[in-house]
Amino acid sequence: MQVNIPLKKVIDNSYDISIESMQPTHLDTKVAIITNPKVAGLHLGYLLSKFTAKELYIITVPDGEEYKNQESVDLILESLFNHKFNRKSMLVAFGGGVIGDMTGYVASIYQRGIDFIQIPTTLLSQVDASVGGKTGMNNSYGKNLIGAFHQPKAVYIDPHFLTTLHAREFAAGVAEIVKMAVTFNAEFFEFLESADLQDAEVLQKAIKEAVQTKADVVAQDEKENGIRAALNYGHTFGHVIENETKYKKYLHGEAVAIGMVMANELAVRMSLMTQGEAQRVKALLKKYNLPTSYDITDAQSFYETFFLDKKSADSKITFILPVGIGDVKITDACEKDLVLSVLESFGASR
Ligand code: GLY
């Protein structure tokens, strides 16, 4: 005997991403803005001058990747229960990637899922993390190993928030912009080579292009069953670098920058990219003072750490390799010896 549940209905989760100064917005429901003390101190006044709700609460969690955990999630949940949030209530993620991921995750589980809006305040979260519905938190086994795909209802990217960003954080966001260009958009890469992203108008154009690129990819493959994995270019190596340096030495975007240089070296050795193209990527990263080198002390141990990555299944490691500039290949068929020789070229001993 068999009982069938027909669940083939198409759900439209489409949403708009606005890239401009926030327009006055009022939500006729109960809303919680989830943020941290740093962002609140700098920008909450500005946000509240634009954003109102029928009932509005501010929930703050401590600032930093080390607080992207169950404790912070519980703190937010408890506050929502205390304030009697219901399934029509709305969360607003107001901060960088940590706040965005965690708020989205809470939204995905609170009463089996409520709506949320992303208002990203760092360049990295504006061009990447806030778009596409990846949500989650860290645990003792690793980063983002717990989470859900839960798309926001809207994303408001306001350049105003970038005015207080430190140079390193700005550059970390640029790394993700470069990632989009190398993997999907040669013309955008050429634009970036001659552009000055310190110029507000140029930056807004670059943000729009990066977000459009990401939106196109997510529209094709929301749950990362294929092409979306290409957005992890630089991340396979970058995650190991972050892990080896205990998430303290490099910002995520900085580790990704080094990771892209490493992936390029592998791509060059597999004749997917020329040395000249790899040099152009490196030069673009250097233009924004991003790190492009890393001293691997133990290639074997670096290689083993690849397996902690979510994208590595069984005994295979998934590498995202550029094909020239503007195209990309996702492969789990790289010879271990070849990968080790690339790692050795970054100062490793085998
Ligand atoms: N940050 C990569 C992605 O959203 O798929």
The top-level CATH class of the largest domain is Mainly Alpha
List each distinct ligand once. glycine
Question: Unreliable stretches, pLDDT < 50, 5 or more residues?
Answer: none
**CATH architectural category of the largest domain:** Up-down Bundle
Mean pLDDT rating: 95
As laid out across the biggest beta sheet, the strand order is 1-8-5-4-2-3
Rg calculated over all Cα atoms: 20 Å
Number of strands: 10
Fold and architecture overview:
This protein has 350 residues and is an alpha/beta fold. The protein has 2 domains: 16-163, Rossmann fold (3-Layer(aba) Sandwich); 166-216 and 226-345, Up-down Bundle (Dehydroquinate synthase-like, alpha domain), CATH 1.20.1090.10. The protein is 43% helix and 18% strand. It has 12 helices and 10 strands. It has a 6-stranded parallel sheet with strand order 1-8-5-4-2-3. Helix 9 runs antiparallel to helix 10 (275-287). 44% of the residues are buried. The protein binds glycine (GLY). Glycine binds next to loops.
Topology, element by element:
Layout: E1 16-19, E2 25-35, H1 37-50, E3 51-60, H2 70-82, E4 90-95, H3 97-109, E5 115-120, H4 123-129, E6 134-139, E7 142-149, E8 154-157, H5 167-184, H6 186-194, H7 200-220, H8 235-244, H9 252-269, H10 275-287, H11 299-305, E9 319-322, E10 328-331, H12 336-344
Parallel strand pairs: 1-8, 2-3, 2-4, 4-5, 5-8
Antiparallel strand pairs: 6-7, 9-10
Helix pairs in contact: 2-3, 4-5, 4-7, 5-6, 5-7, 5-9, 8-9, 9-10, 9-12, 11-12
Glycine is lined by residues 128, 132, 134, 228, 231.
